[in-house]
User: Fold this.
Amino acid sequence: MQVYGLCRSLPVAVDCFYEGENMLAINPDECIDCGVCEPECPADAIYPDISLKDSIAAQWEEINREFSQKWPNITEARQDDVPEDANDWDGVGNKFNEHFSPNPGKGD
Assistant:
């Protein structure tokens, strides 16, 4: 599983989610590919690796690996995790390139 875009949902099957300021990263070495998170992401930003082109999957795997090593682990959804303007961002293109923040989130 890879976060492909900016997702802020947190269904936890294993503790493989890491919190950035405006995105979650999935550690690809910890993810068990159970698929639980995929339908839970309201922005449809989580995809199985096999559903992406190899070059795109490799790019997102590296992004997820890099930031899951830098950001704090998050294991529980918090009420304030979902931004009030989340629906406004749904479907906005090129979010990663134009709005991604490398800053860490608060974690647990």
